[in-house]
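Re: adenosine-5'-diphosphate structure - here you go.
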Amino acid sequence: MTLDEFDVIRTYFKKKLKRNDILRGIGDDCALLSPPANKNLLVSTDTLNLGSHFFADTPPFDIGYKSVAVSLSDLAAMGGEPAWLLLSLTLPKIDNAWLEEFSKGLFSAMCPLNLELVGGNITKGPLAITTQILGFIPEGIILSRSGARENDLIFVTGTLGDAALALAIFNKEIDERLFSVEEIQQLKTRLFRPLPRIMEGQIISEVATSAIDLSDGLIADLQHILEQSRMGATLYLKNIPLSPQLKKIERTCQQNLVLNGGDDYELCFTLPPKQVPALMKKLVQQNLGEIRCIGKIESTLGLRITQANGLLVDFEHKGYKHF
Ligand code: ADP
Ligand code: MG
């Protein structure tokens, strides 16, 4: 039986609501939502397109998962608490098997987070997925890209370059025989099931001076902080955290993936040195992953990258650009 768009919504996307701040969810012309009085609203939208963000052979579960994860990562970068999601789907046809897996992936990324789908749209056309996320931040907290100050330290969560390494392996630019089956699996997870740093973002937001999520590559994204804060920085190459997989590849290639590889969805943030011990302690107490100091904000504009011996690295700046 062929489903129409309303059957699709009912079958795959309309779930029993658990949050009590959704006065009307899927089914009306708008969702009617009741944000808490003492919080501000954070809103962000993102689109995944076939051919750019995923490929014909990407499992639909992963596409569903990632469409939520990329929006959650934007929210994490501003310290937000996720609440509501909208989903606009452009589909070439109604494919039940695809929708079943896609929606499973979507809800699997949402469900640990008390995040609920409150509306969306379905149209016919080349496959594209747009999500819009809404979340809260306590009044008075603004974690933006523009607050970095001289002598702040630059930190990142997790390890960098793994998603780009996975992509390079799929594109046969790097020999997959360097890695075990398990290592390849871990890299695939980094590319298709990124872990948005929601808890870290909330904790960081209390003390950090600026933050961004790393979607286009460390250099490209850090430059946004530097430009908007009107500051410069030095990065210490040897401090950048690398996965065991990344350590296995040739140095020039490794350096390029770490500095310019996109899709990591880790957070990069700046912190006054005196805030470091308390933040480290808090992250450990909450069982959250390590953060690593990779550099320092300076008043001299521009970005410098140094090696262990103190010499400057001659780096290429070619983060992901859409056009
Ligand atoms: P309208 O024509 O008024 O824009 P639609 O008929 O497109 O509304 O959608 C009906 C309801 O289903 C709306 O509440 C809308 O938010 C919801 N909806 C549509 N598509 C999706 C989707 N992909 N995921 C979740 N909710 C959806
Ligand atoms: Mg309407």
